[in-house]
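Case study B.
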Amino acid sequence: MDDAQKEPRSTQPGLRAVSDAPAPSLDDDLISTARGDEASFARLYDAVGSSVYGLVRRVIRDPSRAEEVSQEVFLQVWQSSHKFDPARGKAKSWILTLAHRRAVDAVRHDQAATDRDKKYDWTGGPDYDQVEEEVSTRLEHEQVRRCLTGLTELQREAVELAYYQGHTYADVARLLSVNPATIKTRMRDGLIRLRDCMGVATA
Amino acid sequence: MMTTDPHTLLAPYALDALDDDERRAFEEHVGTCAECAEELAGFVETAARLGGAASAPAPAGLRDAVLAAASRTPQVRPLSAPVHRRAAWPRYVQRGLLAAAAAVLVASVGGFWLEHERAGDIQAEAVSVSQVLAAPDVRAASHELPDGGTMTVASSSSLDRAVVAVNGLPVTDEGTVYQLWMLQGDVPVPNETFVGGEGSSSHLFTDFDAADAVAITVEPQGGSTTPTTTPIAVVNA
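Model:
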């Protein structure tokens, strides 16, 4: 039996394409969310919930506070989803950008109220030992890890202390006893190298 | 603060590594810098990939909490999205007000990614605007202004607030602005200023139950604490 007999439609690529129509993309779901479609919003949560929570927890560290902030992030996604423009970025990036900003603001706000001088977490980088990840997610993690190891020590520390721990570049400079201007340059060099390593399109 | 080349702040900005003041200053610059926007988009996407690599299983209760919160929270809707209409709410009034509310939402924000930053402030006002528009007791009236343009007043006494949307006024002369006032008896209480021109602007009024009328005047740049010119329009609240 060849394929054509089992599936007559395969001789008509157009029809086949229709019958194989993929599930709505994340971009589509975010766009529908802007119209108040709660089912799309739920699909969005299912697709990026662990990414949002993981990132927020990574920055904030306290799991219960991270849960609170993650909920705020999703509420903000729900309310401001009409601002998403698929021509200018992917839905997941849009959401993670929003989540990171909110996590950093929360951790700075919280820490301003407590002792900012406690011991810093020097472990840096993402958590690599998640076992429940899907294959595609693991590949993404693997790529990020590989790209991070391609940075110089100072580039990597500058990027990680800022991004994963929510420090300003001035804080990072103080922590590493390096001139702030140097830190800004290392962040820039580091991001350029990461961008090229990850194959991020530059418009 | 911005004595250094703002381009050196693109990477720290994308990593959320600027403090609040620098962030604001940077955003003002980048809104006017097309070349920055392009490089910034690449950095922002790169940072988001770093973010995606930190995923961790979310607590079991988070999904339900998120969906329940969304279910009871009204969205801030732009004009192009469908709108729940109320019988008491004439369609043309609603269209004008929503356009005005949407204009407030996107005002002065330079780019796609930058909309996050001010979302908090803008959202607080937009939520108030949408609450007024969605209030069960909202009353609205539209008025033609003598020099062209319209002013629409939508008020809710249960919320003690009103939204005033102004459309189609000519741009003011240099050094002057339009200013809105709430009149409590003969006492004018200053509200926001704007410059007119294309599009519309909407303005939130609080303590509106005490208002007898809304007036609009032309004032020097920056606005006044009491009116310095004769109103171009006064409409009953």
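The CA atoms of residues 111 and 148 of chain B lie 32 Å apart. The remaining cases will be described in the next quarterly update.
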